[in-house]
Recover the amino acids of this structure.
């Protein structure tokens, strides 16, 4: 693998010193007061993705048009294909930091009449060890741009020159690497192994922004003898080594407690619980981790012993709202399993769960006292949340709803604090799964870390469509819903102009009324969209931007009209 980094630097603009104003913890903690900027992955550390701009609003969005497009050039196949844009661009003081498929960073000057790429940084990932390239963004800290790469490096880049400050190989075991955007807070960079489904053991690390040294590491799958290891009960005591539970999406941060709230993925193998009986901590869980020490303060497991791929890595909104007549510090979540959860973020106490997806049959409900699925049996090695609804070796295929992608999966949600509405976009549909012989191959040494360890086969049941749901933290109900003929992989952004905007796998970008979710505007990009939109302003003018381009979802989601959509790699920017 090339360690020497290729840099291209070009600009025709004079760069003032103000353009390189430091990104401090104070700025990040008060990011909502800079509506023109998008300084951190979720806009604000609480995960709201709410932009206090209203030049573009529900009354004039019908006049929105393409302001410009910028092609990003890092398009090349990995060993398993082309991948997809899933990155959230950052914006600071008139500059955008967009991350391409191969972790290439583009710093774009937005201030002139014609935005231009100021510099590019290419970490030169090795295509032989990258399957399908995916990255979800960068972080800003001080005068540096921080990235983590799919081959497991954390890299600091000088914001002004685009030259590397340092790089460290943090992920060192076979099959490990990064896809979530790093989060820089309180003198620590938070990164996590993303490749749980590839038969690796999940972990979260804190890295020094000064030199890239690793400060601490928390494993999301405990080794024998560690707390939680009693939930991995296979007789051979080997399942934990390939146990997954990866945190592959950037979490949220409470600046007052210095707690990092991050969701974890499914246990591995995905569909064969007989290989790893037990509740499989800390998979399918929300973790509250001290960012300074790496200690686990508390956890809440959504689906113990999961066998349906219901990762819970998606957004966990940090919000203080009234519940049952009392103001509560909460963390809330659109579960991939089809339920909207409210938890007390001081201790992980379950408050409520409400179904937000249309079709749901994997359980009869959520226990109102424990927050666990109905049908859960404590201490039982193999859970079966509804009779006949769990995959078993030799048992044939099962169909379950919602789809194994959700509901809302890893793509971000948004929250309008003025309306107390949380918006989640996702899938509407069902899946079919069946156990295969992957486990035998692993035990025989025919599969190794880095090989996808599903433990079964999967298919979509019929056409998979999409939706946006608006859940009210005031009423505890889904207040409105919009249905779309294709699925949503992108997530949403909400603005003070009364808008909720998103993209869809059929190539459409849409904006909706934030109360009714009626569609007010649409634009067809002609390519697959799996990246979230953002909004910002430059020189007082508001923009909405989204990265477009990805592999087709036609066959996987039974959307024949998207079969001939071509791959692209383009930044779309819209304005009035």
């Amino acid at each position: 693998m090339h360690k020497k980094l290729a840099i291209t630097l070009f600009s025709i603009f004079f760069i003032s010193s103000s353009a390189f104003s430091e990104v401090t913890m104070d700025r990040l903690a008060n990011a909502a007061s800079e509506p023109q900027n998008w300084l951190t992955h979720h806009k604000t550390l609480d995960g709201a993705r709410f932009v206090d701009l209203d030049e573009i609003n529900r009354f004039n969005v019908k006049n929105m048009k393409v302001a410009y497009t910028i092609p990003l050039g890092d398009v090349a196949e990995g060993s398993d294909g082309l991948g997809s844009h899933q990155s959230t661009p950052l914006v600071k003081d008139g500059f955008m930091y967009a991350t391409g498929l191969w972790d290439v960073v583009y710093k774009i000057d937005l201030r002139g009449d014609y935005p231009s790429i100021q510099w590019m940084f290419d970490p030169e990932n090795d295509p032989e060890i990258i399957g399908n390239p995916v990255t979800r963004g960068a972080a800003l800290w001080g005068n540096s741009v921080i990235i983590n790469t799919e081959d497991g490096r954390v890299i600091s880049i000088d914001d002004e020159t685009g030259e590397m400050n340092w790089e460290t190989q943090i992920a060192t075991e076979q099959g490990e690497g990064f896809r979530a955007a790093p989060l820089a807070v309180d003198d620590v960079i938070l990164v996590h192994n993303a490749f749980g489904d590839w038969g690796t053991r999940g972990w979260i690390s804190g890295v020094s922004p000064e030199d890239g040294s690793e400060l601490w590491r928390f494993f999301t799958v405990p080794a024998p003898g560690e707390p939680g290891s009693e939930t991995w009960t296979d007789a051979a005591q080997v399942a934990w080594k390939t146990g997954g539970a990866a945190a592959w999406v950037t979490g949220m941060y409470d600046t007052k407690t210095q707690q990092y709230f991050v969701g974890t993925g499914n246990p591995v193998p995905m569909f064969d619980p007989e290989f790893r009986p037990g509740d499989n901590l800390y998979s399918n869980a929300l973790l509250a981790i001290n960012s300074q020490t790496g200690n686990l303060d508390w956890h809440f497991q959504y689906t113990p012993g999961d066998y349906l791929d219901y990762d819970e890595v998606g957004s966990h909104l940090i919000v203080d709202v009234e519940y049952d007549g009392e103001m509560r510090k909460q963390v809330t979540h659109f579960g991939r399993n089809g339920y909207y959860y409210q938890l007390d973020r001081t201790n992980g106490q379950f408050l409520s769960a409400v179904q937000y997806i249309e079709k749901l049959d994997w359980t009869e409900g959520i226990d109102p006292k424990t927050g666990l699925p109905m049908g859960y049996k404590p201490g039982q090695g193999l859970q079966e949340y509804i009779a006949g609804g769990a995959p078993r070796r030799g048992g044939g295929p099962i169909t379950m709803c919602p789809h194994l992608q959700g509901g809302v999966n890893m793509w971000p949600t948004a929250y309008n604090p003025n309306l107390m509405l949380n918006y989640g976009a996702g899938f509407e549909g069902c899946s079919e799964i069946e156990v295969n012989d992957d486990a035998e191959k692993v035990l025989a040494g025919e599969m190794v870390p880095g090989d996808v360890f599903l433990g079964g086969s999967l298919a979509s049941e019929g056409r998979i469509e999409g939706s946006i749901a608006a859940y009210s933290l005031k009423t505890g109900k889904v207040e409105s819903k919009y249905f779309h003929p294709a699925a949503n992989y992108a997530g949403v952004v909400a603005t003070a102009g009364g808008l909720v905007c998103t993209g869809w796998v059929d190539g459409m970008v849409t904006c909706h009324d934030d109360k009714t979710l009626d569609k007010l505007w649409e634009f067809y990009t002609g390519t697959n969209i799996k990246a979230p939109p953002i909004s910002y302003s430059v020189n007082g003018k508001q923009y909405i931007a989204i990265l477009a381009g990805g592999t087709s979802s036609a066959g996987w989601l039974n959307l024949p009209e998207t079969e001939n959509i071509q791959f692209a790699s383009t930044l779309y920017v819209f304005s009035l």
User: Anything to note?
Assistant: The two ends are 45 Å apart (CA to CA). Confidence is low (pLDDT under 50) at residues 1-19.
